[in-house]
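## Example record

The block below lists the input lines for one assembly entry, exactly as stored, with component labels intact.
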Amino acid sequence: MSEVVPSLHQRRRAPTDAELAGIPWLARLTPEERQIAVAELQISEALAGDLVCRMGRPVTYWFGVVDGLLKMSGENAEGQAMTFAGLPPGGWFGEGTVLKREAYRYNVQTLRRSLVAGLPVDTFHRLLDQSIGFNRFVMNQLNERLGQFIAAREIDRMNNPDLRVARSLAALFNPVLYPGVGEVLRITQQELAYLVGLSRQRVNEALSNLQTQNLIRIEYGGLRVLDLEGLRSQRNV
DNA sequence: TCATTAAATTGTT
DNA sequence: AACAATTTAATGA
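Predicted structure tokens for the full assembly:
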């Protein structure tokens, strides 16, 4: 576990066109608004294990995943890390904290080498003041994630590992929150195991079961979703 | 472009 | 946790 915030600063640069294309809310802006946003957007390359934001630190940016895989976690009363959510490409997070200009309430760490985009807090507020499209995006985002966290409570209460994996996968394939994912989610079975809180062996077995049911197809270094509704509606057997 | 080798990931016990 | 099998990425002719 390494804190590499300094390297995040050093690696910061302007976004390329290809990276901008992967940022979903830019499409909701007018050309003028878009120009403001793009001028302020930063891209940073984070190595595996880097902390993107740290609990308690003052908020600096609204973050999004351009490429790679992140995990959001907090601490329980005993100080044990607890994973809240996985963040695949296209996912943006921290707007609640940015809105209130508070300190980050969780840790976000890369599970592997990733490209992370950041919009400065002041620019976020400027867009919120000026842009209807931006407001719509943020509102939709908050709403969708509320649904996902409610679903996550259900997942936590399930003791059947196959169900946990199925529902967690369905969350990662959410096209509204993570539009960069598409048909194939780039994730190793080890990474998924970290997110779900199971051993890799058990995840491997659960994935095999889901593949047998034609819900997913296992690929090298990733998973292809065949039936998202089927994953969501997995029930106890 | 192809063959060889190293590294990463998966499947299994 | 350990190991073998498989897939991909890197290297160099």
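Residues 132-157 of chain A form the longest helix (26 residues). Chain A has two domains: 17-156, 161-232.
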